Amino acid sequence: MAKNIKIKEILDNSVKVNIVHSPKMAECVDKMTELNDKSFSKVVRLAKSYIRVNKLATKLFGAENVKIELKEEPLVADLVSLGDDFKKALKCAKKYRRANKLMSIAKANYKELEKADKAILSQKAAVYA
Asked: How far apart are CA 40 and CA 33, in angstroms?
């Protein structure tokens, strides 16, 4: 997909992503957008696993008898504690990460266009000189 992005002119330097969320979810999403791809996948995989384990354990032993502690990854613990908003947070983080990638591609393409314009202008100036 990134190879197909071409910019012919810059109208605006912003990417719009509208998502309504709670402050706790916003913190999780902000932390997730800062992760690299490998860490992001690891955190999501761990959080999904803990959520599945928690559901199965509550079915088997009851809600009062189950307590799962996450000591290694504080971000995973935050995601698991979101409960029903986990899917919404994950979708939100993916949208922000995609928007950031597209914005960096757009900036790189803009710099290339700017260099090409300068080269063309210098060639025209050399011709007229």
From this structure: 8
